[in-house]
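ARCHIVE CARD
SHELF: 3
SLOT: left
DATA:
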Amino acid sequence: MPEALTLPPGLMIAAPRSGSGKTTVTLGLLRALVRRGLAVQPFKCGPDYIDPAFHAVAAARPSYNIDSWAMSFDRAADILSRSSLGANVVVCEALMGLFDGVSKAGAWGNGASADIAAKTGWPVILVLDVSGQSQTAAAAARGFQEFRDGVKIAGVILNRVGSPRHVRFASEALEAAGLPVVGALPRERNVVLPERHLGLVQAEETAEINTRLEALADFIETHVDVGRVLQLAVPGSVAGGALTKIKPPAQRIALARDAAFSFVYPHLLEGWRAAGAEIIPFSPLADEAPDPQSDLVWLPGGYPELHAGALSNAGRFRSAVTEFARSRPVHGECGGYMALGTGLVDAEGQRHEMLGLLGLETSFANRKMNLGYRLAELVAACPLGGAGEVLMGHEFHYASVLASPDEPLFQLRNSDGEALSGGGSRRGQVTGSFFHFIDK
């Protein structure tokens, strides 16, 4: 039998749907708990780069993604147990609605946040947007109580409440249904964080981020019984097994890292380092060249479309990567893939010349959403693995592909097992795709 790994007391912040206020509650609660002198470990369910960056600032600890579809359970158990060492309490933010996932199970679940709540035993605090309703909120919450064995709804935070009478009606109905109401948040525009098409604006781009987080913490302290929330947290556990190490793509990795290229999962960077790899960051936006002693240049995802002009004019960066690609591999994920292409058309319709190491042409003038879990079978060897290897990950972008003349890198399938087009590109030692790697 696998050994049970004990986890600190924890809670999941979840909701019936996206846009209910999970992130507002999570960030405010993280900072409020830190201000009380607690070591708080944040997690994010599912594939998401942006929320964990805010978590990390709010909690002053790295936040990690846990994914039941695209991550082996042993990987998830290792991340949960290792990263929460020394923490007094865990706060895990759910993705979308609590039970939302795909139709076919992946590694150990269908990608729903409820998978993680059930596996760890951490209870759920349900954030309910009660605008336009009162007692009906109790019926919705009661359905959450009984929907899945092993998932406990420990309490409710009402969001977007109106008058005290509105709060009373909803609270009385919820308490009668056996669900304690631990907070009621009024409609408040001044504590909302700025947004963009992939979710929240990146933490490092948000002006006065700590001032905003302090305001969120004040908001939560005023309208939520934080002490009661802490009392609802219970210790968790996971059954750990034999963990396969993440093989790094190279020994010395030159990693683009700035506002244009910031989407890298922390568990991958830590896995690469644990396997002996050295990661050397550089900034294309600052027109920096990658370390010439590196074995690989890795351009991760991000927002190159917002910085296309600066990237097009970054002569030192462009010439250095072009020269590097003559003898060593260069790989791009999503935004990095677009930067490796021939050109990028921004939202205003202006075309910017990119590195030209691949034939890819992309446009944001006519956006097209591409979203979902992916299984990617490598057609040819690349930094991610050998031909025939199958990787788990996801795709999330709004770029339209105008041209993609190169040989594909992957054979892609979605979460239903259906074959997809758009399997990336390869040309010589240069490879790239919109696929974000999570595990294999």
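SLOT: right
DATA:
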Amino acid sequence: MMSHQVVSVAADRPFKELVVLLAQNDISALPVVDDQNRPLGVVSEGDLLRNQASRPDPLGHGHPAGPSDPTRIQPEVAADLMTGPAVTARPEWSVVEAASAMERAGVKRLVVVDEIGRLVGIVSRSDLLRVFLRTDRFIREEIVSDVLGRMLQIAEGAVQVQVREGVVTLRGRLGRRSQGMLVVWLSKGVDGVVSVHDLLAFDADDAPVLPEPVTLPAAP
């Protein structure tokens, strides 16, 4: 899913060159790297606009945060403009891992690095959403062949799989409830699946019984 052809910049690249690179390549962010191609941070359109927003208003209106300090030195190069350190990912991460990392860090993209920390790609939110462009036919084939066949070795035809707009419906009858729960769980992990409707029946309910929640008495 990641973009392998990454436009990166050195820490000393000036402001205007950053703007030109973003426009020429139709991208919204640039990884900032050291001389070993290891990411130091990311400079985005948002970083550049925040820098401009902090400048004095020539019309004298100031800005929402109040009047600018006229003695403040404006950032001029990537190292001073970037957001760092870069939030990184590994090439082998799943969509779920990448999406979770973005959510935790509150970022729109992850810099992908190899085992020694060198830049190898970048993955954005739009890249992660591309998995939902997979057709229903391909999603169904993966569930039938990989999940039911190769991984769980369930007899052909025991589970009927219907996929519509990424929503999976499972029907059929299995020997154990735990087996059905595993089918549902693995199906949810298939790229492009929006949700799974579990209509499976079973002969024996071997699912673990969870203890009832304990209600503590109110404090006196």
